[in-house]
Write a structure and sequence with these properties.
This protein is mainly α. The chain is 70% helix and 0% strand.
């Protein structure tokens, strides 16, 4: 039996593969130009500033809630902290958004040529961009500190501190126990290990939250309520 037809079939398959590879390479080659146009679009619609404004309004609502319990930062302190957040968002958000859309385009190209990506490959691609990061990206914290940032700490304090009714019990150890008793949902849904007073102090320092000021203001708040 002649083997010629099978050889031709294999040759046609090779040409088809090369065509697919060319389409894929063209998509990757246009990535730099697409990135420039993407950033230009963000600037045209003032997207990043609008995102910052959304979070600013949210944080101001949070501030008002904290101040009701006598534990919120002063307005100048809030402005100082939020300015750092704003600078961070403006610096990294455009690239993060582009990387997300660029990854989706890669998935779309491969799906369009009949070779959809495996879930494991997609997961690894997203992890390499958003978790492992590159040298210019901001570092990520691991371990049990991962869920704790300034916002989640402030939220936990605002909900746990009012449970302390005796001024003599306004300590980091007591506060950590009250936080551990909060429902493990919302911002605390990924909390696996209980806090200790020492660990809580470390987190507060790393997130520039002034515990001594919070403690003083809350004890003053309790004193006013007892009069």
């Amino acid at each position: 039996m002649s083997t010629r037809p099978s050889k031709l079939k294999g040759l046609r398959k090779t040409k088809k593969d090369k065509h697919r590879e060319e389409e894929t390479s063209q998509a990757f080659a246009s990535s730099d130009l697409a990135a420039q146009e993407f950033r230009a679009l963000l600037e045209e619609v003032d997207f990043v500033s609008r995102v910052v404004d959304i979070y600013r309004r949210h944080e101001l609502r949070e501030l008002a809630h904290f101040r009701e319990h006598g534990i919120g930062p002063s307005r100048p302190r809030f402005e100082q902290t939020f300015q750092r957040q704003e600078d961070f968002i403006k610096k990294y958000l455009p690239d993060r958004l582009y990387q997300a859309t660029d990854t989706l385009v890669i998935e779309a190209v491969l799906a369009a040529i009949g070779r959809p990506m495996r879930r494991l490959i997609v997961a690894d691609l997203y992890n390499s961009i958003f978790v492992r990061r590159n040298d210019t990206a901001p570092p990520l914290r691991g371990g049990r500190d991962e869920i704790w940032d300034s916002l989640s700490l402030k939220w936990a304090i605002a909900n746990a501190l009012p449970e302390i009714k005796n001024p003599r019990n306004v300590t980091l150890s007591a506060l950590a126990k009250r936080i551990n008793n909060l429902p493990r949902k919302g911002m605390l849904r990924n909390m696996r290990k209980n806090l200790t007073g020492k660990h809580l102090q470390k987190l507060l320092n790393e997130n520039h939250i002034d515990w001594m000021r919070i403690k003083t203001e809350y004890k003053r708040h309790l004193a006013k309520k007892s009069v």
